[in-house]
Amino acid sequence: MTIERMSLLFVVFVLSVSTLSYNLGSNGAFSGSGGSVQSAGWLSGWSYRKAHNITGSIAGEQFNYQMMLNVRYDNGMDMDGEVYLDGKCRSDFGDIRFTDTAGENLSYWIRQKVDAVQALFCVKMSYIPQSLGYTTVYVYYGNPNATTTSNKDWTFPLCSDFEDGTMQGWTISWSTCIVGNGVSTSAYERTYSREAGRLYGTWNGAGAGHFYERFRTSLYLASGTYHVEGAGRFDTLHSWEVPKEIKLMVGEITVSNVSNPGTEWHWLSGNFTLNVGGYVELGAEFHLLFIDGYGDFVESYFIDAILVRKWCNPEPQHGTWSREQTSADNTPPEIASVVWTPTCPYPFVPSSVPRQREPVLVQANATDYESGIAAVYLSFRAIGSQWWNTSMIYNLTLRLWTAVIPGQTANTTVEFFVTAYDLTGNVRTGTIHDYSVKYLILGDVNGDGICDLKDVFMVHKNYGKTSP
């Protein structure tokens, strides 16, 4: 055995120590201290779905985190946060649903849409692991009888779109008007439908003044970092009206502002952190400075789509998409090319060589071109003992699924097999393989099966070093 091979197996052994193992239950599901591990069950009544991976952030694991997905009605290449459904969903996107890996429905809100073109969905992910890990969300479509379950209040800690003609729990915190000579102003409230209010003034002669008004609401938030955003604008009816400002505020802190916005909608956004959970006040503030002029004027100001969502830096990222899966798929995956290294491992070696009980690296090719692979597991046992199971990890370089069987004592025969699940719940169990653990003769330090001068040189070279 070469030094390079021994080093590789030592690395593999270290990795195997941290691998989570599962007992195989009587119902065939893998269960253990890590919870149940199964592919997502199919959502009844839906014909199609696509699986999408979301990779975690170095900022740590996230719970109830909102992610954006752009669902396109036509056909194209799925990439990042955009998926194409090839005209197989309802034109109003009412049959779009999202589930997690356990098959549980995820809350969502349709932020905006154009029928038969595209819809922007905000989806609340129940869990996203930390960096290097990923979670899977399933996008279901193809149910002509389904209607939308879009709900902003189930998706965000706060989301006000003002579409129902009210201010939805927002109140006027204060309104102040400081006027100059010959100016008379007042706040004017009208039916709230995006238009938050009006400023009305009349004068005959020179004058100047400032107008401030803040709308506010409060909500309870747990500790953590959040993103707040919203839109605002003024409706300028007279050219002599001058500098204006719109602010988005958390408490008394301005998180975003726009000066001299004109008549265009402006998007305001910012982040804030709560070290301790509690009630937070959100505010949208409007400020108008007007100068001298003649005649009557009316100034309207508007707010829209104010929301609060979870936020971390960097944010979780969109990953890969599976090909389209169908509920009619009843073909299990294929398992091929199962190999293991070494084929006849050695047991414990009391020497300075960095090898304890020699682990065995198992590799397999598992494919399912119709639905895609959900998970692959390795089951192993010493003959006569209980079966143990561990998840196999996909190696992108080798394009193989890999896992490690821990080292065993001499003269032990180990049996193992591979089980693969596809994304529609079909399962295939592979052939049982076995290998025997060799007895290492006394004095064979380097593990080549014989005792010779090479072993003496290795002992001399490593004399005084601490064995792992």
Molecular structure report:
The chain is mainly beta and 468 residues long. It folds into three domains: 167 residues, Immunoglobulin-like, CATH 2.60.40; 108 residues, Sandwich (Immunoglobulin-like); 140 residues, Sandwich (Jelly Rolls). Strands 1, 2, 25, 26, 29, 30 and 31 form a seven-stranded antiparallel β-sheet that branches. β7 and β8 form a beta hairpin. The longest helix is centred in the N-terminal third of the chain and has 15 residues. The radius of gyration is 32 Å and the shape is elongated. The N terminus and C terminus are likely disordered.
Structural class, please? mainly beta
So what's the overall shape?
elongated
CATH class of the largest domain: Mainly Beta
What gap, in angstroms, lies between the N and C termini?
18 Å
Number of domains: 3
User: Which CATH architecture of the largest domain?
Assistant: Sandwich
Say which CATH homologous superfamily of the largest domain is assigned.
Immunoglobulins
**Number of helical regions:** 3
- Roughly how much helix do the residues carry, as a percent range? under 10%
- Strand segment tally: 31
Classify the beta-strand content into a percent band: over 45%
Uncertain stretches = 1-39, 180-194, 464-468
Let me know the average pLDDT: 77
User: Main sheet, how many strands, which sense, barrel?
Assistant: 7 strands, antiparallel
Over all CA atoms, what is the radius of gyration? 32 Å
CATH topology of the largest domain: Immunoglobulin-like
